Every structure is written in structure tokens, then in C-alpha cells.
Amino acid sequence: SKFIQCISQHVEDKIYLPEENLCTEGETGDAMFIVMLGTLRCFMNGVQVSEMGQGSVLGEVAVLGLSDVRTATLRAVTVCLVQVLRRPIFMKYLAEFPREMVHFQEVGAARLEKNPITDESNLFIRQVLFANSDREFLNKLSGTLHRKFFFVGQKIIKEGTECNEMYAIAQGQAVVEKGGIVVGDLEAGCAFGEMAVLGVQTTQVLSVRASALCDMQVLSRWDLDHLFIDYPAERQRLFHTVAAMMREDLAEVTDNEILGELPLFEDLGEETLEAMSRQTTVKLARVGELIFEPEAEPTLFVILQGSARVEVTGGVALRDLAEGDSFGEIAVLGLGDLMTNLTVRAITSCLYLEIRSSSFLQAIRDGDDQSRQHLDRFSRQLRTPITLREKALERSPLVQHLRLKPDRIAGLLQMCEEAVFQPGQVVLPPQLRAQVQAFVLAGQAVIGDEARIVEQGAVIREARSSGQLVAPAVRAMTPCKVLFLHRKALEAFVESCPLAEREHLKDRLRTV
């Protein structure tokens, strides 16, 4: 190949006489030897371990820069003609031939793998992420690690690309870059990629480039996930550690302030908010993981970073939640009769605050009397019998148009969502009016600026202006509990019906 042609112009031909050493164990060196003629022996700790002849290639570790210290003595048995290739020449041409660089990168890694990573040499156990991990788990972790080898200038991770590995630098140095600008340095012993190996953030926002030859210990996300099967407590511990680290990055906003921004809690006293914040837990969910599931204890959560999706039975998407949005207020207040049909799933990696119902109630008991009375009054105002929900659906022009039977109305009810609102809070924004039908179950709502009041049990209808349908925002006039029927949920319900009925309902839906 052209690469071989280039380096062959720079090799040195040397002759070694019998008993002459080509290199000596413990000394430094950067050359590789190619035996063209003759026989030589290899000694380690003074003991002969092998004998080699014409065609043998020795010293790859030195020329690749994996080690400057010779690990063996090479001694001529007969007169030997040897070609010597030194590291600077090798590296110069390697940089010009990317394919050969990848090949020798693999060769270097293969040589490194001959020295397996032990518990003593495992750099991961020294990292913050694994500081509190179980010893047995760490022993297993050592067995999953592998080695990678990067030449000077090579990208270890590249900004904007996907990565599912965590790296620790066993030997060498690297620089961290953002948009091609160096923003930091990494020395031997440093590690990076915690978010990637946990599957939290696999698209890289920075590049890491080797500034010296790097011998890396590497942990794969897939190997770690496999370990989690046998060590679920470790998974929980590691995710909690990363969640806490991410929460520290948002430390300028306290849990008190976050909770106080929620409409339901904006009138609560500082003492109660403080009691609630002591009961919160910061958690982290990967893409596709459930944040809220019906079998679990009723929970309130607030999204700090990322986004999630509210789904109804069968995985039907109802709406998305973004940073600052909350879900589950109705559940922790004990007002969510329809919560058993809902789940919330992360659609990006999601950092969120969570407070369980039992912890929420304890916080209310520990808080001030005024806040406790306020929430108690709010809850009492919004308690409604399950029959009211069915009656609200029965009165819906849409349901009447579909001519649903009582048993079907009960089934459709399980595809609905409930929520509670404080006075002045937007119940239904204009952009959702065409996608959602809403029913006031308790309290009163007002449509737009017309002050058209929607009473308990009524359907929220579009307003008219000069004969044209308009869809202004709907706001709670008093503490308000609302039942929502999303169009997607209705369509999914229709699809679940027997064939003959399904086609009939589809025909009627098309005429709505």
C-alpha cells in the first residue's frame, strides 16, 4: 500500500551480532523492529519466553506509543538484519492515512486487551458516579470494561454525534472543544460521558480530542444496562446521582419557588411550601420511560428539564408537557377518579421533581393552618360523583350525534382526562378548542371576554361572533374541575369498537 511505501523510505537497516541486544527490558524506546534475516530470543525478567526469526514484527507497543518502557529484552542469536521504524516517522504518515490509523487503533486496542482491567486498575470506581456503588457490582463492572486507543488529534467523541459510552483516561491527555474552540483539558484519571452511558443525553454537545496518545477505559451503555438487570438498586442509585448533579445546575431556582409557581399552590404560605419541598425527590427518566403510571401511588410532579407526554389507555397521546409544566395535582388531592387510565411518558430525557401523595399530605399537616384550610376548602368544592361525569358526556352534542349507548359512554369515560384549576387559570386555550371537548364538573368557567359563564355539568361550546364560530380562551371563574375528551382519544375509542359499530361511528364522526 501507499502507506507502506511511504514508511519504508524511512526505516533504518541495522545489523546485530550474536548476543547483542536490540532493546533491553526496563529501558525507554520508541522503535518497532522487523526481522529481515536471522534469529533472536525474547526474555522477560531474565527468562526466555520465545524465539523469533525472519518476518517477525516486534515493538508495536513502543511505536504506537502505548508505552515508552520496554517490557522485554530482545537478543540476537545469530547475525540479524533488522529494519527499525521509529515512532515520529510512523505517526507522521499515520496522520495522513485515516484507514491505516483506524487499523492500528484496533491493533493497539487488541494489545491493550491482553492486560485486562482489574478492580485495582478500574478507573470508573474512582468517579463520583460510582462512589457509593456496591463492591460486588463494581467487580462485575470491571469485567465489562474494554480498551480503546486514540492517536494525537483523533476525536474521542464528536459534537453533534450519538455516543453511548463513558470514557476514563488511563494514559494520555485530551482537550474539550465547543464549536472547534478549546474550553477545557482532561488529564489521566479523568472520565466523561456519564449522561451518554446512562442513555440520558446521547447526542453530544461537546467534542473531546486526544492531545496526546490516549489509552482509554470504556464502558458501554448496553453492557451497563445488562448489569442493571441483576442490580436494579444500582440503576436507581446511579440515576439518582445524575439527577442530583443535574439539579445542582439549576440551583438558582429553589424547590420552594418551583412549587410556588404552580397555580394550585400560589396562595400557599411559605411554611407549607417549605414543608412540601422537604418531601420532594428529584428524578430522571430516559426517553420512553414512564414518569407516572396508574398502579403507583398518586404522585405530583413538575418537569424541570425535557418534555413528556400524557397518554390514555392504549398509548393514545393526549398532550405534551414542557419545562415548568406539572401533572398530578388532582391525584394528590384525592380528586382524580380517572387517573387509573392515564400514564405520562418521557419523550426526551426528563428531569423532574416528584412528591408522592402520602408525602404531600404529610407536608400539608406540617404546614401552616391557613394553607391547610385553603387546600381543604378547594378540595371540598371540587368533589363530584362519578355519575356526573357520565351525565356530562351524555349531554355532549358530540356524543348525542354519535348515538352512543350507556355502556359505550362508560367506556368512553375511561378515555377522558380530568384536571382542576384555580380562578383565573386558563382551562382551555384557543389552539386546543378544535381538538378537545370540555365539560365543567364543578365550579364555573368563563369563555373569552364575553363573560359567558359555563356552569357545572355544562359543555364548553364555541362562541359566535357575527354568525361565525370563534374559539377564545376559557378560564376558571371559581375553583374548577373539568373533564376533557380529546379527539385522538375519541378516535381510538371508535377503533376499539366491533367492526360494524366502528364503521357506523366513523361515518357519523365524518359529519361532525
Condensed summary:
The chain is an alpha+beta fold. Helices cover 32% and strands 30% of the residues. The protein is built from 18 helices and 33 strands.
Primary descriptors:
512 residues; 32% helix; alpha+beta; Jelly Rolls; 4 domains; 4-stranded antiparallel sheet
- Mean pLDDT reading: 87
**Largest sheet properties:** 4 strands, antiparallel
Structural class: alpha+beta
Overall structural domain count: 4
Number of helices: 18
Fourth-tier CATH superfamily name of the largest domain: Jelly Rolls
For the secondary structure, the number of strands is 33
CATH topology of the largest domain: Jelly Rolls
Query: What's the CATH class of the largest domain, please?
Result: Mainly Beta
- State the shape: elongated
Explain what you see.
With 512 residues, this protein is of the alpha+beta class. It is 32% helix and 30% strand. It has 18 helices and 33 strands. The strands form nine sheets. Strands 1-8-3-6 form a four-stranded antiparallel sheet. A four-stranded antiparallel sheet has the order 2-7-4-5, with no helix packed on it. Helix 7 packs across helix 8. The longest helix has 17 residues, at 232-248. The radius of gyration is 34 Å and the shape is elongated. The N and C termini lie far apart (72 Å). The model is unreliable at 463-469 (pLDDT under 50).
